[in-house]
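Support request, please re-run this one:
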Amino acid sequence: MEIRRGTLRGFDDTDYKATVEISGSVSVWLTGVPVSRNIADADLVEGRGVAVLFLDPSNPEDAVLFAVWA
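Re-run finished. Output below.
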C-alpha cells in the first residue's frame, strides 16, 4: 500500500469519482478515482489537497481518494 498527496482537479457527483493530479506528476492526472462516501460532495472543490490510497502502487486504477483539505 502507498499513500500519495495530490490536488483535486475534478469531481463527478453522479459516480462519486474524481480526477486527481498526484504531487510530482504535473503532466499525468488520474481519472475515475473512487471517492470515499464519507466525504461530503460540498468538500470536493477543485484545487483542494487530497490524499489517495493506492492498494497496489503499480496499478493506478486500484486507488481511492480518502481525505480532503483546504
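The radius of gyration is 11 Å. The mean pLDDT is 94.
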